[in-house]
Amino acid sequence: MIPNSVWKRINPVAPHLIHDLLALLVAFGSHPSALIKADGIVLDKPGKPSYHSPSSFCLIVLLQTFSKMLERIINCRISCVTRAACLVNSHQCGSLAGLSTSHAATTLAHEVRSLQMAGKKVSTDFRT
Predict the structure, then answer these.
(1) With a cut of 70, which residues of the chain have pLDDT below it?
(2) N or C: where does the chain have the smaller number of CB atoms within 10 Å of the terminal CB?
(3) How far apart are CA 113 and CA 120, in angstroms?
(4) At 99, is the secondary structure helix, strand, or coil?
């Protein structure tokens, strides 16, 4: 329950402290249940004709700062391994560092143009 503002002050003074605390959790493969606890907020999506379906709502989950830091370290390590082993599809854009929505849109536009140049019929369908 330590606020993010405190972690920001600790890091410049003792950057090794956060790493050392997280390294023990990673080494033992442990994610304590106290860090897994999160607060969730359910918001109505505006403009939905009916609110009887789960797709009519947006869920925002707030994790503790320390848990976010641990998750970031694990994600970076997994990302390095999966990219080195070529386990990530070249069309994957979401949740990858350095690949954003603009990359996805550019890839889609490129694929559509390439297929059109080859004389093929192309269409796209965007559903929410």
Answers:
(1) 1-2, 63, 90-99, 127-128
(2) C
(3) 10
(4) strand
pLDDT tens per residue across span 64-75: 777 777 777 777
3-class SS of residue 72: helix
pLDDT at 91 (0 to 100):
63
Phi-psi region of 29 (alpha: psi -120 to 50; beta: other; left: phi over 0): left
Contact (CB, 8 A) for 69 and 47: no
Within 7-126, strands assigned E span: 38-44, 57-63
Is 102:85 a contact under the CB 8 Å cutoff? Answer: no
- Residue 113 one-letter amino acid: R
- What number of CA atoms fall less than 13 Å from residue 100's CA on the CB side? 2
Angle at 94 between CA 92 and CA 96, to 5 degrees: 85
